[in-house]
Design goal:
Layout (H helix, E strand, L loop, with lengths): L3 H15 L1 H5 L5 E6 L2 E3 L4 E7 L10 E8 L7 E2 L5 E2 L6 E5 L5 E5 L6 E11 L15 E8 L10 H36 L2
Parallel strand pairs: 2-10
Antiparallel strand pairs: 1-3, 3-8, 4-5, 4-7, 4-9, 5-6, 9-10
Length: 194
């Protein structure tokens, strides 16, 4: 059963692409890209987030940046380490609009499927799931993660070794049983001989 937080997260994330309210929001001061656009499961992908406009006069604007899967049943946020979190975790915290681009390797792209990623730009420490905290519309980018072909997986040598030992043990047990049976037949045959 889904928790209220997950239900709220799901509703907010699913509304990202189609909600007219988010379309009325201005474009965020950041854009992002995922490269390559298609990758095999487990292969690396590069995430690049960069400011797209010059900072305005006055106090520097800083934001928390969240990368979320936009089309999932439950909330999924990508951490800066490349792991998925069911609760909001900033991909980058307190990033100024004058900051250099953030370029990070996502070491193992997963799960397989065609995914809509959303960059959520919210004020520092604001809840990215609360639409009232949104000052900008989400930026959506797509990434196609192809399932790894079964032939691509390297063999698990420990499992192979265990199977070899078990097979040799089974052969030895059968061989021992057959030899004992023959010896017993020979002994009985000798005992019956005149």
């Amino acid at each position: 059963m889904a928790s209220p937080v997950k239900t709220l997260a799901t509703a907010a994330i699913l509304a990202l692409a189609a909600a007219p309210a988010s379309a009325a929001l201005p474009a965020p001061p950041f854009d992002f890209s995922l490269s390559p656009a298609a990758v095999t499961e487990g292969a690396p992908a590069t995430v690049r987030i960069a400011p797209v406009r010059a900072p305005s006069a006055g106090a520097p604007e800083t934001y928390d940046l969240y990368l979320a899967l936009a089309r999932t049943d439950e909330a999924s946020f990508l951490t800066e380490d490349g792991a998925w979190s069911p609760s909001p975790v900033p991909y980058a915290r307190a990033v100024g609009v004058n900051a250099p681009p953030i370029v990070r390797q996502w070491p193992r792209a997963w799960p397989p499927g065609e995914h809509a990623f959303a960059l959520l730009v919210v004020p520092v420490s604001a809840d990215p799931l609360a639409r009232s905290a949104w000052r900008y519309r989400p930026v959506i980018r797509w990434l196609d993660v192809e399932p790894r072909a079964s032939g691509d997986a390297s063999p698990d040598y420990a499992t192979v070794a265990i199977l070899v030992v078990a097979t040799l043990g089974a052969i030895a047990a059968v061989w021992w049983t057959v030899l004992e049976g023959r010896r017993g037949t020979r002994r009985r045959g000798l005992a019956c001989a005149p």
